[in-house]
Amino acid sequence: MKLESLKKIISSGESITIEFKESQKKLNKDVYESVCAFLNRHGGHLFLGVKDNGDIVGVDKDFVNQIKKDFVASLNNHQILNPTFYLAVEDVEVDGKTILYINIPESSQVHRCKGKIFDRNEDGDFDITSNTNLVSELYMRKQATYTENRVFLYADMGELEDELFTKVRKTVGNLRPGHPWVSMDNIDLLKSAGMYLKDQSTGKQGITLAGILIFGSELMIQTALPHYRTDAIMRRENLDRYDDRDDIRVNLLRSYERLMQFIAKHLNDKFYLEGDQRVSLRDKIFREAISNLLIHREFSNPFPAKLVVEKDRVYIENGNKPHGNGMIDPDNFSPYPKNPKIAKFFKEIGWVDELGSGVRNIYKYNKIYSDADPEFIEGDVFKTIIRLTPQDTPQDTPQDTPQDDKRISMILEFCKEPKSRQEIQDLVGMKDREHFRKTLLNPMIKGGLLKLTLPNSPTSRNQKYYSDR
Fold first, then answer.
1. What is the CATH number of domain 230-392?
2. Which of 93, 113, 220, 443 is 20 to 30 A from 43 in CA distance terms?
3. Into which CATH architecture does domain 402-466 fall?
4. Radius of gyration of the chain (CA)
5. Are 89 and 72 spatial neighbours (Cβ–Cβ below 8 Å)?
6. Where are the domains of the chain?
7. CATH match of 3-133 with 3.30.950.30
8. pLDDT digits over 404-451, tens only?
9. Cα 12 off chain centre by
10. How far is 427 from 434, CA to CA, in rounded Å?
11. How far apart are CA 100 and CA 8, in angstroms?
12. What is the mean pLDDT of residues 287-293?
């Protein structure tokens, strides 16, 4: 979040959504109670290094890293916060002092701090553990607010795809050896993921909509949610209808795979080095976009989710429970989890990063991919528009080839000392200047492989290019 926005929040003082902790050399003892209360209520903003009256004292710079480490570690400790919850800590410099900012979203679960349930009101955090009415209301509000928590008592474990449980155990085991899911049976894995809950109206336990959407068979999903589907369309020649289509009604894990296959079928990739690692720009962008489509979707909304590939753009639409309206600014927005348990599950299997990373990553990689900014529009229907350029389509440019890789390696070695465009073009034996610029020179500049000796005058006749790799 931008500094001006954070200053404005601090100046408004503590409230039901804002909490200050001094925490100059160590964390205040009650900081986790505030985290728990925010998660249980409507979320909020937590500032470390700020007094109760709003005076900024800052966190001692010698203790910043240790405080951040202690905070994150404690939130992953079941004895302190249960269920655990990942939160990112942001360093902010204000008037020469370092404060730590944590944006805490509302959770779809009821959390306990050291065995106690805390809620939030205008006066701060309060313990409601012994008040059975308030606790019951809290659970019921969570289930009513988040569709993913709806319990389906008729749903049977035998209707879930056993093959997907096996796949999930293998995936998390490869990511983090010793992950507790590896040794759990299917029902315990569901319970651990918060997808097997007690229905507060009947007192009986059952599989939630989240569990059905992730592991359920197509028949089971259609029984629970008849309007559920995702429409993948390619429309370039036949603009009235479509050139290709995939009507997807399977669970979210299989939907993700089919949508990624659809994108790979209709959009080419581009060469890009991140550090010393070759990465797929196409997959970087659409891994995030497709995950957002599946995860941050209001499943009670009958609006069919869509992914449409056109000549100059890909646009994505899905039903939404908006927390605002209009264009999202990636530098100044607060992410809200629409389905926190589904999002956390995707994070556990390595398909997404922390909350809010998707928007930032799409901005970052789409700028390299097509030199265009994507658009995110919040409303009852959430829209994502990813701009393409004509050379990004299969009709206009070939896939990267081993010859391209060889040329890039030659150029990187050759440009350890600055070289002109003509010298580089002669090196790789390409006669057409425009073709050379489009297929090699410009992508290498956008990807950070080549740098300009005159960055403020990119078209100068004295321009040269160099590699610092």
1. 3.30.565.60
2. 93
3. Orthogonal Bundle (1.10)
4. 25
5. yes
6. 3-133, 146-224, 230-392, 402-466
7. yes
8. 667 888 888 898 899 999 999 999 888 888 888 877 888 788 767 888
9. 29
10. 16
11. 15
12. 91
